[in-house]
Design goal:
Helices cover 35% and strands 16% of the residues. With 723 residues, the protein is an alpha/beta fold. The radius of gyration is 24 Å and the shape is globular.
């Protein structure tokens, strides 16, 4: 595919011999950032070799500036190629030096035919929200169809249970043989979504046929998915979803659709996507503060089926992070105990969200149409709205002026993505009106520890104002609206590993010395290199036939880890970012010591009522489990198992084409998502069976304890995580 904008090879040649400044050198002298890049973002080229970091930077920058050029030419707007070349070269240099990065999905698909040829931005979108209040008598399945298709594209989707307020009656589809219809499902994303829509509508609309599905056209498991990447899981996940929906509605004719039904449909769709697509998915479910049924959705004593840990009949409650919508002054006392014990529900102040951008600024009501949040809760969104994020790294800059220059190109990347439509008309109408983006920052905690809060506040406040200047200038040039909101703090999982930064506003997990566990496909050619070099390699407990785990011993450069910081300081830093930087929200999971700090959860919520837009909590230190993303080790272990045992690896053979295609970005961007592990409780006192919230690589993940305290034959307990 030929792009309309290209950097000169003479310019690129100067970077091909430069050392890539990836972060996290391990005890063997290998860059965990480079290893993560090879595993996740380096695509196979036409000649069979793997992309280098220079290649990816080139693809991203050329794709980005091609979109700008194509927009200007199509709209008959001025375009100066000389100025564009100068701008693109600086953008490239700052990307190469990891002062900014697109989100992982941008590193994966920007500059590819999926984006630049098809002119579709859906795969570049990080997050979305859909309200089930959009369910209509004509098409009850509409919000679920959007949730499913967006999830299949790797977009994290938030939804609510308000569809239950629309007074839907459940019907029994006709059993008359003349009205039983068979539909041969096309082997497309749209085919999967349409089949689910047809099935849902057959139970929520009167006088509908009874559908029987034919799966013969769906490609078998293991077949490649050429356009989006990865391999097919075959028809099984879709067939299971259909059967779940049959089971959910059968025998309930004349009953009303409930909030639990809405939650079940959304979660079951998510499970199907996780099982059937290489892109991991994520959901957030928003409910009411006074809804006991919602608060019990992850209580196995109340809903054992949706919280089942039986391998033959697994539950689906784990699929979403569940949060309650509140207002300033709401009484939260009845949820504090659950939060202190298990981390749920998260708390979302929608009144603050709708009224404010940054909290240091006056009320502007720009976001009065916002109806919910994405799964990590850093972006407020209207129903059917998507958003684009981008990352900057504070500690990669020597001065505030240097950082402001980087903000220009990070902002411009996100704004450029808004030039492309999705294939959803309703989404396009909202996105072209709002032009919402999220320019994020990582390494915030480490930066504050090194340079102090006054300096951090100065960089945030000045940086925010310069982005507003850029937005006015570039929106005018491109002939589009200014963005309703422009800044955020996202969890930044995998991309923060590339730069070696602490994720978002979180302190570095793992302590001074830690093992970083990273998962690889069993056929990844890097695995033999790791084994030969002396690295600890294990079969992944969740999928030993397909996945292995490699442990990288690392010495942290951070002054403090999350274990050294109180619940109050963590919340205060998030509030600082919400006040001086983010006009969207700040994604933060406040980890705390359950033995010492549980009693302070309520106090924190009261103190910061209205000072945050969203927050979730994580009781930490209650258990241990194998193959954690971060495991604290001693200095002696670091030296004996690392420095004295490991040695540098030459990855030139991998770049030459030994490896298969990269896996692409998972939504959650953490290696711990969707893992099945075996875990022994760290004490005889088990957590109450419920969803356990965890922050791994800065992302919010959910950990599921079994509904029964009876151990397996091996004396182990099953544990599941999802983001």
């Amino acid at each position: 595919m030929a792009l309309s904008f290209n950097l000169a090879e003479e310019f690129l040649k100067g970077y091909r011999t430069k050392q890539v400044p990836c972060g996290y050198k391990d005890a063997g002298g290998n860059s965990v950032g480079e290893i993560t890049f090879l595993r996740t973002y380096s695509r196979l080229k036409a000649d069979g070799t793997k992309e280098t970091w220079v290649d990816v930077c080139q693809r991203v920058i050329e794709g980005m500036y091609s979109l700008q050029k194509d927009h200007c030419k199509t709209s008959r707007l001025p375009w100066n190629d000389t100025r564009a070349q100068a701008s693109a070269k600086e953008a490239f240099d700052r990307l190469f030096n990891l002062k900014w990065t697109p989100p992982g999905r941008g590193l994966w698909v920007m500059g590819t035919p999926l984006v630049n040829e098809l002119k579709n931005s859906a795969a570049l979108q990080n997050c979305a929200f859909v309200s089930t209040s959009s369910m209509s008598k004509l098409d009850p399945a509409k919000p679920f169809a959007f949730l499913m298709e967006a999830s299949m594209l790797g977009v994290g989707v938030g939804f609510d249970d308000k569809g239950a307020d629309k007074d839907f009656t459940i019907y029994d589809p006709s059993r008359d043989e003349s009205n039983v219809q068979t539909w041969e499902i096309p082997d497309t994303r749209e085919g999967w979504v349409d089949s689910v829509s047809m099935l849902i509508n057959s139970y929520l609309k009167p006088d509908q046929p009874r559908w029987v599905f034919d799966y013969t056209l769906i490609r078998p498991a293991g077949a490649p998915i050429k356009t989006f990447g990865g391999t097919s899981a075959g028809p099984e996940p879709l067939a299971k979803l259909h059967n779940y929906i049959y089971t959910l509605f059968e025998g309930r004719a004349t009953q009303k659709l409930t909030r639990k039904d809405v939650a079940d449909i959304g979660n079951l769709i998510g499970v199907c996507v996780v099982s059937g697509n290489v892109r991991r998915s994520a959901e957030l479910l928003m409910g009411r503060l006074d809804d006991k049924d919602f608060l019990n959705l992850k209580n196995p004593a109340v809903y054992p089926e949706r919280n089942s840990y039986d391998a033959a009949a697994p539950g689906w409650a784990w699929m979403s992070n569940n949060s309650v919508e509140v207002s300033v002054g709401s009484n939260l006392e009845h949820i504090v105990e659950g939060i202190a014990l298990n981390g749920e529900p998260g708390v979302i102040w929608m009144d603050v969200t709708r009224q404010y951008g940054r909290l240091i600024d006056p009320i502007n009501n720009k976001d009065h149409r916002a109806s919910g949040y994405n799964p990590c809760a850093e972006q407020s969104l209207e129903s059917f709205e998507c958003c684009t994020l981008v990352e900057t790294y504070l500690n990669r800059h020597d001065s505030i002026d240097d950082y402001k220059r980087t903000l220009k190109f990070a902002y411009l990347y996100a704004k450029t993505v808004t030039l492309l439509p999705t294939h959803w008309e309703e989404t396009n109408a909202i996105m072209q009106r709002n032009r919402r983006i999220g320019t994020s920052m990582s390494g915030v905690a480490n930066f504050a520890d090194r340079k102090g809060l006054p300096t951090l506040r100065e960089w945030m406040d000045s940086g925010y104002k310069v982005i507003q200047d850029y937005d006015r200038t570039y929106s005018e040039w491109l002939g589009i609206r200014e963005s309703i909101k422009t800044t955020t703090v996202k969890p930044s999982g995998t991309v923060s590993i590339l730069a070696g930064e602490s994720p978002g506003v979180h302190w570095t997990p793992g302590g001074e010395y830690f093992n970083r566990a990273i998962r690889f496909s069993n056929d990844d050619p890097m695995l033999p290199l790791f084994r030969a070099s002396g690295y600890k390699v294990e079969k992944a407990s969740e999928s030993p036939k397909t996945t292995s785990v490699v442990f990288f011993p690392i010495k942290s450069s951070a002054l403090r880890s999350e274990k050294d910081v109180s619940i109050y300081e963590k919340t205060s830093l998030a509030a600082t970012a919400q006040r001086y930087w983010s006009d969207n929200s700040v994604s933060v999971t406040i980890s705390f010591d359950p033995e010492k700090e549980s009693e302070h959860v309520g106090t924190v919520l009261h103190m910061y009522d209205g000072q945050l837009k969203t927050v979730s909590f994580l009781p930490s230190g209650n258990f241990t489990y194998p193959q954690m993303p971060y495991t604290q080790i001693t200095e002696e272990e670091y030296k004996e198992e690392g420095e004295m045992k490991l040695f540098p690896i030459d990855f030139s053979g991998v770049y030459a084409g030994m490896a298969a295609d990269a896996i692409g970005e998972a939504y959650c961007t953490t290696d711990a998502c969707e893992i099945w592990a075996s875990a022994r409780p760290s004490s005889k006192k088990l957590l109450r069976p419920s969803r356990y919230r965890a922050s791994l690589s800065g992302a919010t993940c959910g950990w599921r304890w079994p509904g029964s305290r009876v151990a397996s034959e091996e004396g182990k307990y099953s544990l599941t995580a999802t983001c």
